[in-house]
Amino acid sequence: MLLDLAGVIYDGENLIAGARAAVTRLHEAGVPIRFVSNTTRSRKQAILDRLDGFGLSVTSDELFTPAQAARAWLGRHDRSPYLLVHPDLAPDFHGLTGSQGKALVVGDAGEIFDYRTLNTAFRELIEGADFLALAPNRTFKDADGKLSLDAGAFVAALEFASQRRAVVLGKPSPEFFLSALASMHCSKAEAVMVGDDAETDIAGALRAGLSHAVLVRTGKYRRGDEKRFKPQPTATVSDISAAVDWIIANRGI
User: Fold this and answer.
1) How do 102-106 and 10-11 pair as beta strands?
2) Within 13 A of 137's CA, how many CA atoms are on the CB side?
3) Is omega for the bond preceding 81 within 30 degrees of 0, making it cis?
4) Which string of DSSP letters, residue by residue, matches 139-165?
């Protein structure tokens, strides 16, 4: 089972009701879990610390983030990162000094996104830097409970201006889903994705070949999302507790 975090396990600084018990039920049922997050404002260790604060013991190997996928890409291609990311995420890229050029890395930079930073990033692209997008999400649920622009809008702007396509490293990249499954020696046919984003979590997982994807009506979900993107969810349920009910009831299908 692949589980999104923001909007599924927690909502801002609050654990979603029933989430801890739901994860415990999965462990007791012998269902292997990986947590797959498109969060690009926080370091991986900060996410692990937040989960620990919620009473969820998650190891580094169980959590997959776009930043770690980017580090792996930069290492394989011997590139140095030029970062357009939130300051809290920047330490995850310390120590990377490739000798074969630069790669622009774009995440959810928040207030850092302005004309100056976007134009500087644009100039890096037209001068030949590779183009990496940590995640292409359109929106996220902000601290005030409303939707806000996510990194995808700024990635699209840079793609338009530079006439370059970004390499997407987080969801819905098939490689991101498949690397999480590979860490459990799990086939696509045995896998279920649970998320609150019908586009990146659900349609992305199904396009990657996972057999099932369950959409929850928490987090960024808005009425009608289950019909807005294709492929559509295998099931749409109220929350993570109901998703676990569905998974346990349908094991073996």
Assistant:
1) unpaired
2) 28
3) no
4) EEE-TTSSEEE-HHHHHHHHHHHHT--
Q: What is the pLDDT of residues 22-70, one digit of tens each?
A: 999 999 999 999 999 999 999 999 999 999 999 998 999 999 999 999 9
pTM to 2 decimal places? 0.89
Which residues neighbour 42 within 8 Å (Cβ) at sequence distance 6 or greater? Answer: 50, 86, 88, 89
For residue 80, is it left (φ>0), alpha (ψ between -120 and 50) or beta? beta
Tokens in use for 21? 């018990």
Closest CA relative to residue 97, chosen from 111, 116, 82: 82
Query: What is the radius of gyration, based on Cα positions, of the chain?
Result: 18
Distances 117 to 83, 100, 122, 164, 206 between C-alpha atoms, Å: 10, 23, 9, 18, 35
